[in-house]
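Private note to self, pasted from the team thread so I don't lose it. Backbone tokens:
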């Protein structure tokens, strides 16, 4: 499980960092190629960065699908649970499990429909407009991300049934800060 957790985190972090760098380079290129410096302008105009926007859109789609699964695992999704938290414990627990299983069912259905769509589109020679990447690779984010999210819903439901606790994200917690504070006190 730790391998999957780390793979998920590294994929999201890589996609965010790479998209940021690509967008930064494309924006700098766009404005620098407009500078009235003849030799610089001539050189920069020859560099084609039209692919940057398309690639970043695809990266954000993949990031969003895997980020949603990460959100389920860590408990950072927004939820309206005012009424559920007012119920007595047995009823609350039943509704929480129902909600988690409904989320798993929904994401499982989306994953299956996405897999069917990816299979259908892979049978054709459909490619992206600028980068000419096969579109089935782009759309593969839907079934992979949805199935991972389904798995995370089932994982959280199983943990809740066993322990009665849901993952809770503490916005004030900073990883590694406890060790640093202990080091300063010593």
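Design output:
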């Amino acid at each position: 499980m730790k391998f999957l957790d780390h793979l998920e985190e590294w994929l999201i972090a890589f996609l965010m960092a790479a998209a940021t760098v690509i967008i930064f380079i494309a924006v700098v290129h766009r404005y620098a190629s407009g500078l009235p410096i003849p030799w610089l302008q001539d050189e920069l105009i020859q560099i084609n960065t039209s692919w940057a926007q398309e690639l970043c859109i695809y990266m954000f789609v993949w990031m969003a699908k895997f980020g949603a699964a990460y959100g389920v695992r860590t408990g950072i999704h927004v939820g309206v649970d005012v009424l559920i938290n007012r119920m007595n414990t047995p009823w609350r627990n039943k509704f929480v499990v129902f909600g988690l299983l409904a989320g798993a069912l929904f994401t499982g259905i989306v994953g299956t429909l996405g897999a069917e769509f990816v299979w259908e589109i892979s049978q054709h020679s459909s490619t992206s407009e600028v980068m000419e990447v096969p579109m089935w690779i782009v759309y593969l984010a839907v079934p992979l991300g949805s199935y991972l999210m389904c798995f995370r819903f089932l994982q959280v439901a199983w943990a809740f049934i066993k322990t009665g606790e849901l993952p809770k994200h503490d916005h004030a917690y900073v990883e590694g800060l406890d060790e640093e504070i202990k080091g300063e006190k010593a």
